[in-house]
Design brief:
This is CRAL-TRIO domain-containing protein. This protein is an alpha/beta fold and 336 residues long. Helix content is 44%, strand content 8%. It has two domains: 62 residues, Orthogonal Bundle (Helicase, Ruva Protein, domain 3), CATH 1.10.8; 232 residues, Phosphatidylinositol Transfer Protein Sec14p.
Length: 336
């Protein structure tokens, strides 16, 4: 490590104390009062190198200011029909909490199509969920459990993976790069469930390309993962696709309020209403506009590009069979 953690934290904190407005203001939105935990996340992402961590933080804050990220939760995707189309094709939601109070994010990797809107809308939606998690969900969980809760767990459902997933690699690489640079180390563990038969072969090729700290976070569970996940969360918090073996498509549940991907699920209703309320507060200052929020899209890191190319190569080997999704690149996979 080269430098003891406490000393590294002290040095980075000293450097961050010197930043001026508006970086200082957006940094407060990043750490939400949990300064040390935030510095540790960024230090982990840069292997505890103080200079690299400081640069990463300053770059992140400049990105936030330039792209008005602090206001993104006041910019709804409208009309509502378009937002519903985004939700139906970008399958993500919160199903509940672990017994330790960590939010459980469910991600429908295999059945997400990302074909109902432009790239900018999907990036906007992803960042809004990140910001809602960091500004609303995690602070609320911290207050409820009486201790800092600054990370989540993610359950990745691989149901429905096909060779067509190749078309999503570019978008998923963009999203994972945004997460790597600006929301590092936000995921405690990735649980991968409902894996297709070729997953193991592809995983052997991709796994060595992932950073060690990411590899340690990934757990591939048998079947729908129900039995293993029940060790860390109650049944009510299980994603709908983990509740019954062989339940088929994980896009839909019998009850839309149990399907955490659905716009009708309490999580998405709360998120949608929160964004709408924030937009009404800002409306006198800035009228609500239709159209997506344009965020500067970063160049993927070399290791991310290598992972994407490896996934593409492996998928082609399997012809038209089911394959490993580009979202495994998002395990570089989004240390978010």
């Amino acid at each position: 490590m080269g430098i003891v953690p406490q000393e590294a934290i002290r040095q980075v904190q000293s450097l961050m104390d010197q930043v001026e407005e508006p970086l200082k203001r957006t940094f407060q939105n990043v750490h939400q009062g949990y300064l040390v935990e935030t510095l540790v996340r960024f230090l982990k992402a840069r292997e505890w190198n103080v200079a690299k961590t400081h640069k990463m933080l300053v770059d992140c804050l400049n990105w936030r200011v330039h792209n008005e990220i602090d206001n993104i939760l006041a910019k709804p995707i409208i009309p509502a029909e378009l937002y519903r189309a985004v939700r139906d094709s970008q399958l993500v939601g919160v199903s509940g909490y672990t017994k330790e109070g960590l939010p459980v994010f469910a991600i429908g990797v295999g059945l997400s199509t990302y074909d109902k809107a432009s790239v900018n809308y999907y990036v906007q939606s992803h960042i809004q969920i990140n910001e809602y998690r960091d500004c609303v969900i995690l602070p609320s969980a911290s207050k409820k459990y009486g201790r800092p809760i600054t990370t989540c767990v993610k359950v990745l459902d691989m149901t429905g993976l096909k060779i067509s997933a190749l078309s999503q690699i570019k978008l998923m690489t963009l999203i994972s790069t945004i997460d790597d640079l600006n929301y590092p180390e936000k995921t405690n563990t990735y649980y991968i469930v409902n894996v297709p038969y070729i997953f193991s072969a592809c995983w052997k090729v991709v796994k060595p390309l992932l950073q060690e700290r990411t590899r340690k976070k990934v757990q591939v569970l048998p079947g729908c993962g129900r039995d293993e996940l029940l060790k860390i969360m109650d049944h009510a918090s299980l994603p709908h696709f983990c509740r019954k073996e062989g339940s088929g498509s994980s896009r839909h549940a019998e009850n839309s309020q149990e399907n955490c991907y659905s716009l009708d699920h309490p999580f998405h209703q709360q998120l949608y209403n929160y964004i709408k309320q924030q937009s009404l507060i800002r409306e006198p200052i800035e009228p609500i506009k239709q159209g997506s929020v344009h965020v500067d899209l970063p160049e993927p890191a070399p290791e991310g590009t290598e992972i994407a190319k490896t996934i593409e190569s492996e998928l082609h080997k399997f012809g038209n069979g089911n394959g490993l999704p580009p979202s495994l690149d998002a395990l570089k996979i989004a240390d978010n």
